[in-house]
Write a structure and sequence with these properties.
17 helices; globular; mainly alpha
């Protein structure tokens, strides 16, 4: 193996590698969007692609396929992780659930309220209330990893658990608030595929290809139903068997999760970032500063920076104070503040929700992505330097 291959292998083995690749993809998108290649970039994203089965035709532009198709695989992996954590992981113990669940709840409610403080007067702008409610686990854990062995394991588990509950909240928000124009026939097909998946699970069908075929039918049905197609990924994951009854040592879910992890982290999410983070700094009406100081951008920035920290801290403190939960061993309140700041990194899920929230606006005097990037970067910097100061020094 050459030195270059060894270096690549060591890089991809790093905990922070996924966050670094994601950041590079986002930065590259911004460079392209503000270069002479900007027009080609836009043409590429809006290139029409059609898939047909006889008389049935699904036609969307490339950006739509990325956001509704590739991201369904991301949500599928999220669903697999959720199921594993709830069955055999940290979330399988009720005592470990309460504190991160409360922290995540506060970290969703407060950012939404702060965002609405800036935008409640305009119904179109108010639709973005959920944008600062999300946490990007890849970036947040990547920043935490930069602090090395000084970070106690309990702090990493706490942050990961908060992000998991954040994902659950984001999935519910997308399903309940960013779905419209329900197609009952398509919902009927989706319900039928779920019944088939349930039967397959009960009869211990472990062939993943069978689940993928039914999952594709479910995805198409959800795409046509009015409920966002990515939810199909989460629903499919819930039916993947945790264990093979014929051979209990084999876990189809864990094997599939392992197989998908690198594909999602180093291909699907970077492609999503490149397609969605191409902010043209002079593109919004009034230019860069007008977009940055727009109530939507300010609401997102303040929601991520202030709302996340306040919500996570206050709800965590209340949980401990009311004796609903205990602070994990090896953690202190100073470290919780640092984690609360890192929860303000909302990049991937925030971009995704932003693309849904303002999809119907023909003219936008703002670019919500600017607020997402600014808020996430500032939250990461604040969280890093705060934890760097408060964590025990390396001995």
């Amino acid at each position: 193996m050459s030195n270059f291959q060894q270096t690549l292998k060591r890089f991809f083995a790093m905990d922070a590698a996924a966050g670094i690749v994601l950041a590079i993809a986002a930065l590259l998108a911004m460079i392209v969007a503000n270069s002479p290649l900007q027009e080609s970039y836009e043409h590429l994203l809006h290139f029409p692609i059609a898939i047909s089965f006889g008389d049935f035709v699904v036609k969307h532009h490339l950006l739509h396929w990325i956001n509704d198709g590739l991201m369904a695989v991301f949500f599928f992996l999220v669903g697999l992780e959720l199921k594993r954590e709830m069955m055999v992981g940290e979330l399988s113990n009720p005592r470990n659930i309460i504190l991160p669940a409360l922290a995540a709840m506060g970290g969703m409610v407060f950012p939404a309220l702060i965002y609405l403080m800036f935008n409640y007067q305009n119904p179109d702008f108010a639709k973005g209330w959920a944008i600062p409610a999300a946490t990007d686990i890849a970036f947040a854990l990547g920043v935490l990893t930069l602090l090395g062995s000084r970070v106690p394991l309990s702090l990493k588990v706490f942050l990961t658990s908060i992000a998991i509950f954040d994902d659950i909240g984001a999935i519910l928000i997308i399903a309940l608030f960013y779905s419209s124009g329900l197609n009952l026939a398509a919902l009927g097909v989706a319900a039928l595929t779920l019944a088939v998946l349930f039967i397959m699970n009960r009869f211990n069908v472990t062939r993943i290809s069978a689940y993928v075929i039914i999952g594709l039918v479910l995805w198409v049905a959800m795409l046509e139903s009015g409920i966002h197609a990515t939810i199909a990924g989460v629903l499919l994951a819930m039916f993947i068997p945790m264990t093979d009854s014929a051979n209990p040592k084999i876990s189809p879910l864990k094997e599939l999760e392992h197989d998908l992890h690198h594909t999602v982290s180093f291909l699907i999410l970077p492609v999503f970032a490149f397609a969605n983070a191409g902010i043209h700094f002079g593109g919004a009406e009034g230019g860069f500063m007008a977009s940055l100081t727009h109530p939507v951008s300010l609401g997102i920035i303040m929601g991520l920076l202030v709302g996340k920290m306040l919500g996570v801290m206050l709800f965590s403190w209340l949980g401990v104070k009311l004796k609903l939960a205990n602070l994990p061993q090896g953690m202190n309140w100073g470290q919780v503040i640092g984690v609360a700041a890192l929860c303000g990194i909302g990049f991937t899920m925030s971009l995704f929700i932003g693309s849904l929230a303002f999809a119907g606006l023909e003219i936008k005097p703002f670019d919500e992505r600017l607020g997402i990037v600014m808020g996430s970067v500032l939250a990461g910097i604040i969280g890093y330097f705060y934890l760097n100061k408060t964590l025990p020094k390396q001995t």
